[in-house]
Specification:
With about 200 residues, the protein is an alpha/beta fold. About 35% of the residues lie in helices and about 15% in strands. The chain has a 4-stranded mixed beta sheet with strand order 1-2-4-3. Strands 5-6 form a two-stranded parallel ribbon.
Length: about 200
C-alpha cells in the first residue's frame, strides 16, 4: 500500500496534477485488497479487471462499478487489449485484433455500456509489428462509426457514470413533471429521457 502513495505522489510532481486512475501492470493484484490500497493512496478508479490472455468482460459487465465498501472508488474494467491476441494467442494479424475489439464495442453499445481498451504504444512497425499503426487507425475510426459514441478520457467516463448513478427521482410536480436530483458533473448536464430517447426533465 505504501508504494501506491509514493508513486502517486511522484507522478503528481512530474505531471503537476495528481493522477486519479490506476491499473496494475500484468494485471497482478489481490482482488479488492489491492483496490482498497489504491483508494487509500488517493486514487479514485482502477481499470485492472480485464483478461490478459483473451478479450471479454471479466466482471460480467460493460460499465463502471463502485468498489464494495468504498464510496469514492470505482472499477472501470477494460474488455479489450491488443496483446491478448498477439502475445497470448499467437494471432499476429492486426486486422483480427481490430475485428475483435469492434465486436466487443458493438456489444457494449447495445447495452449503452462502456468500452475500455488498451493499446500498447510499442506496437509499431520498427519494433516488429507491421501494420499495427494502420490497425490502430482502423480501430479508432471503427469506434467513431458506432451509433453516436461518446469518446472521452477514462476519468471523464467515470465521473459521468458516477453522476448518472447518483440520480434520484424525488417526486412529480402538479403539472406531471418528474422532479429529479443528482450529483453535478463537469462533463455535461444530466437529463431524463423517455424510452425512445426523447429528452424530458433535467436533473437539478
Amino acid at each position: 500500500p505504501a508504494a501506491f502513495t509514493e508513486q502517486r505522489t511522484r507522478l503528481a510532481a512530474l505531471t503537476a496534477a495528481p493522477p486519479t486512475g490506476v491499473r496494475q501492470h500484468f494485471l497482478r493484484m489481490r482482488p479488492m485488497e489491492t483496490q482498497r490500497a489504491m483508494a487509500g493512496a488517493g486514487f479514485t478508479y482502477d481499470s485492472t479487471f480485464g483478461f490478459a490472455d483473451r478479450n471479454g468482460f471479466r466482471l460480467g459487465l460493460a460499465d463502471v462499478a463502485q468498489l464494495p465498501g468504498a464510496a469514492n472508488f470505482d472499477l472501470l474494467p477494460f474488455c479489450w487489449m491488443d496483446r491478448a491476441l498477439s502475445k497470448y494467442q499467437g494471432i499476429e494479424d492486426p486486422a483480427a485484433w481490430i475485428a475483435d475489439g469492434l465486436a466487443l464495442a458493438r456489444a457494449c453499445r447495445d447495452v449503452d455500456g462502456v468500452w475500455c481498451g488498451i493499446w500498447h504504444p510499442n506496437l509499431v512497425t520498427p519494433l516488429g509489428f507491421p501494420g499495427a499503426l494502420e490497425a490502430y487507425r482502423a480501430l479508432v475510426e471503427g469506434l467513431q462509426a458506432l451509433d453516436d459514441p461518446w469518446i472521452a478520457p477514462a476519468a471523464a467516463v467515470v465521473e459521468w457514470r458516477r453522476a448518472r448513478r447518483s440520480v434520484r427521482v424525488t417526486g412529480i410536480d402538479g403539472e406531471g413533471r418528474v422532479i429529479a436530483t443528482g450529483r453535478g458533473t463537469a462533463v455535461g448536464a444530466l437529463r431524463l429521457e423517455d424510452r425512445n430517447g426523447v429528452a424530458r426533465e433535467p436533473v437539478e
